[in-house]
Amino acid sequence: MNVAEYIASEFNRRGIERVFEVTGGMITFLLDALYRDGRIQIVSLHHEQAAAMAADVYGRMTGKPGVAMATSGPGAINLLTGIAGAFFDSSPAVFITGQVNRDEQRGPRAIRQQGFQETDIVSMAHAVTKGAWTVEDAASLPAMLDEAFRLAVEGRPGPVLLDIPMDVQRMVVDSHSLVCVPHAVSQKGACLSQHLVRKVLSALAEAQRPLILVGGGVRAAGSVDRFRSWIHRIGIPVVHSLMGVDVLPSGNPNRIGLVGTNGNRWANKAMVEADTILVLGSRLDVRQTGSSIAGFTNKRIFHIDCVEAQINNRLTGCTPIIADIFDFLLAADELTATIAWPDRREWLGCICRWQQQRKDCEELGEDIPMNPNVLVRELTSEFPAARVIVTDVGQNQLWAAQSAYIGESQRFLSPGGLGAMGFGLPAAISAAMAFGETILFAGDGGFQMNIQELQSVVHHALPLRMVVLNNKSLGMVRQFQDSYFDGRHQSTVWGYSAPDFMKVALAYGIPAKTLVNMDEFREVFEWMKRQKGPCLLQVMLDPTTDLYPKVKFGSTLSEMDPPVDFKGYP
């Protein structure tokens, strides 16, 4: 077989169900090989950025590398935003780009370019991948492809890129160079000190106000079920980062809420008042700690991460545990029975009283015609069968993270480290293809950035409920301008505009409605439930609708606007 045929065969052998792509001259042999093989779904999107974002979500949802392909030059470069998102959010992925024939490449010549669309994508991708290589000949392809799939899932998952010249794609693969992939033997837990794990558990048990912060690393380590079982045994309150929203379902008595600059204020209060914190798979970046770290002094913090350099950056003085989270939880589960765990109902009750004093759905007041927190809470509660909830970037992302009702088996997907607008629609397409009914929350700004993928939604007749929160502005930055630029709204309101998304959806053949006030939302939800395929709901928000609560700049995590004087601290 030739290189293209070998790649198609290997994708199938490794359990890859679909490949996302936008066609181009330099990947035609690869796509033809996939077509002739016939065992893998080829998903043709309308922009390479969307293909890369869809592959990111495939990797997050399945734990297997998502695969996206693009042609050389602009096609390969368009992948980079999605590749960077996968890198920062620890999503396993393998990206394959076509390249011009080797005899058309510039080589050592001091020129910009030799072949048409020739671009050094490998150099560009190095900073946002775990590895990026050019396949120079057929003999090296099997080992390089094997290494790409191994590296994508090893340790902290992430993306890998292979750039394959068109003439190499047509070369015959020698049977002597084929790679036989053995079944991996798990070494989990082999190097983790039980003494160190016992130290962490003892500190949590002895603390008066212990807290656990979970992030996306718990999912990336395949440890959600084990964590849920363990937390049930020890009864300690759990807060989550944006990437850890779905680690515990909303009905779990230990789930407190979202922490960060736009977190649930009672969760932030718990972070500041806790005396001992265990951090599992979260970076403790500025969006989680706030710009002032004064609220984290005088407490013990144990930080578990598989990369040592990730610990003691913004917050110093943390006790580092360098381990895979799966390893830690495996050891913790075994040692938990040897430790006496006190009743935490008083501490949990205190946090619950803080929550009752200012709930998330009360942050914007009672007179607002369309309350996005209430809308998110009610809508997600009405669709328990939806397997996945997806957000784009902006105010919509945080309203959803603050207030979405997360069921036992539901996933919540959102772009974290890179935070690229336009993520929502291609991510929701990938989720709906893999898992069925999906809800998307997007703002008018982000939705326009990959709006062309509405045709992909139609083409595949996906069970996707799209909710576009339309405030006719780029609301997150507009709110920032109100605070720091005396309300000068350049490029967020002035010079910016958005279409009527209901009319856009109808033009694509997608059923659509517009919701203007809260009095009609029950009727609209019933309409959405009756739709068998995709549908779009445009929700009109007042352009001045703000995202609250918000940590004051330079303040501790619990000092949020609008201010609330919490009562009931024990």
Tell me the span between the first and last alpha carbons.
Answer: 72 Å
Which geometry do the CA atoms define? globular
- Identify the quaternary structure here: single chain
What is the strand content? 15-25%
Total beta strands? 20
Strand order of the largest sheet: 2-1-3-4-6-5
**Per CATH, which architecture of the largest domain?**
3-Layer(aba) Sandwich
Low-confidence stretches: 182-190
Query: Helices and strands: which structural class?
Result: alpha/beta
Assigned CATH class of the largest domain? Alpha Beta
Rg: 25 Å
Kindly report the name of the CATH homologous superfamily of the largest domain: Thiamin diphosphate (ThDP)-binding fold, Pyr/PP domains
Fold-level CATH name of the largest domain? Rossmann fold
Give the averaged pLDDT, no decimals. Answer: 93
Q: What's the story with the biggest beta sheet?
A: 6 strands, parallel
Helical fraction equals 25-40%
The domain count comes to: 3
Secondary structure tally, helices:
22
